[in-house]
Every structure is written in structure tokens, then in C-alpha cells.
Amino acid sequence: MAEIHSSAVVAAEATLGKRVRIGPFCVVGAEVTLGDDVVLHSHVVVEGRTLVGDRSEIFPFASIGHPPQDLKYAGEESKLLIGPDNKIREHVTMNPGTKGGGLTTRVGAGCLFMMGAHVAHDCQIGDRVIMANNATLAGHVVIDDDAIIGGLSAVHQFVRIGRRAMVGGMSGVEHDVIPYGLVLGDRASLNGLNVVGLKRGGFSRDDIQSLRAAYDTLFGNGRTMAERLKEVEERFAHNAPVNELLDFLRNQSSRALCKPKSEHGG
Q1: Is the pLDDT of residue 265 over 60?
Q2: Which CATH class is domain 3-198?
Q3: What is the mean pLDDT of residues 183-201?
Q4: Three-class SS string for 167-185?
Q5: Mapped to the 3 state alphabet, what secondary structure does the chain carry?
Q6: How far apart are CA 34 and CA 124, in angstroms?
Q7: Known catalytic residue: 238?
Q8: Architecture of domain 204-264 in CATH?
Q9: Are 138 and 155 in contact (CB under 8 A)?
């Protein structure tokens, strides 16, 4: 049975999994589903059509599932789906989707959202993503697995952040970030590869060297991007991490690509 503090307000229609714990002064809405072993510490509010996955833990003053901060939102039946094993720290905010973005905001498994992080409407977040203190995502942002978003950073709407990319603290990210990339700056520019993250992720020396060579080719000077892409495709046809990088570059996006400062003219 669920363990619910006497001061908590839990709608009778809410769906509670096994061994759920709901602390003092929490509020859980009628259309909320809490999976098995979910823990809500004190003063947590979960509303809307929100699913919180098994073993997730939400800390005080988090606001989860309230309507999007989007003037176009007209009360449509949208959802917020949070996967298992997430840690959502104090003052985090997450909003459901909108009609313009597929009606669903989705968070994967095993993520960490530090104090004050914000996930806006229609964001799609992969597994094991880390958002540090006060990192913020505008609407429709896509973050792939194992990416890290540094503290006090802000990501523009519709931007894609590739797998194992690292966004440095206090960065403003206006353009897509390649998988394994490292971006920094108040208007973020690409600053090499996230080599520390690659090593921590168990990537082989050969894969890291291949990624470095591909990076140098892709962001070198003197040729068009199409010519550079072709060269990398020919040199690294059988290297999985490099091909993931190439797939990211081939996919269409509404945002430009985050590049080194020299390519921005900086």
C-alpha cells in the first residue's frame, strides 16, 4: 500500500503503484499515475496527465505537469511522461506537451535534474541525461542519451543536443550540438569533443581517435560541408560513433549547426 502523509492531498482518481511514498504537503492530481516505489518528498505538486516512472524520486517544491508556458496552449489534452529511476531535485519544473509539438513531453530513464532545472513543453529527453542547477530548456528541444547540460545554461527552442554532448555552464545554445560535442559561451560555439565524457562512457582509444579525426575534417576550412561529409563517410564507413555523428548531421533540423568560433567569424 502507498504511504501517504496526513497533510498530503491526493485525488481519489490518481493511480498509485506499489510502495509509493508521498510526504507532507504534497498535491497529486486526479489524472496522475505514480509508478512503483516512487517517492515524493514534502511540498511536491504533480498535476495534469502525468506519468512518473518506477523508482523515481521528486524533491521539495518541484512543480510537475502544470500547463505549458506557451500562449498558444488552449487546454488540449497533452501529456508528460517521465521514465523510471529519475531524480528530480528541488524547484524543478516540467510541463506537458502542446498540439504544435505532438502533445507529449517525454523524459527517459535514469536522468538527474538538479535544483531549478526547467523542461518546457514538447521536449524529448533521452536516458541518463544530466541537467545541472538552473539549466533551462525551451520548447521542442531534443536531448539524446547521456548528454550533460551545465548549470545556468539555456537551450533555444527546437535545438537538438546529440548523444554524450556536453554544454558548459552559463552557455546560451542557439544551434544544434553534434553528438560527443563540447560547447561553451554566452552564445555557445563548438569547442571540440567531450573527451572526458567519452572516456567515462568506456569508448575505446580507437573510437576516440576516429572521432577526433572526423571532427577535424568536418570542421576544417577550405571546402564545403558536403565535401567534408563525403570524405568522412569514405574514411570511417565502419566506425559506429562516427556514423552516429554523420546521421545527426544528415537529419533535417529547423536550427543551424553549432560550429567552432572560427566558422562563426568569431
Answers
A1: no
A2: mainly beta
A3: 96
A4: ECCCCEECCEECCCEEEEC
A5: CCEECCCCEECCCCEECCCCEECCCCEECCCCEECCCCEECCCCEECCEEEECCCCEECCCCEECCCCCCCCCCCCCCEEEECCCCEECCCCEECCCCHHHCCEEEECCCCEECCCCEECCCCEECCCCEECCCCEECCCCEECCCCEECCCCEECCCCEECCCCEECCCCEECCEECCCEEEECCCCEEEEECHHHHHHCCCCHHHHHHHHHHHHHHCCCCCCHHHHHHHHHHHCCCCHHHHHHHHHHHCCCCCCECCCHHHHCC
A6: 20
A7: no
A8: Up-down Bundle (1.20)
A9: yes
- The residue extents of the domains of the chain are 3-198, 204-264
Q: Which amino acid is at 133?
A: N
Percent of residues, the chain, with pLDDT higher than 90: 95
* Active-site pick, 97, 139, 150, 197: 139
The one catalytic residue in 54, 122, 144, 145 is 122
Cell of 183: 560547447
Tell me if residue 121 is catalytic: yes
pTM greater than 0.85: yes
pLDDT at 222: 79
Q: pLDDT digit string (tens) for 55-77?
A: 999 999 999 999 999 999 999 99
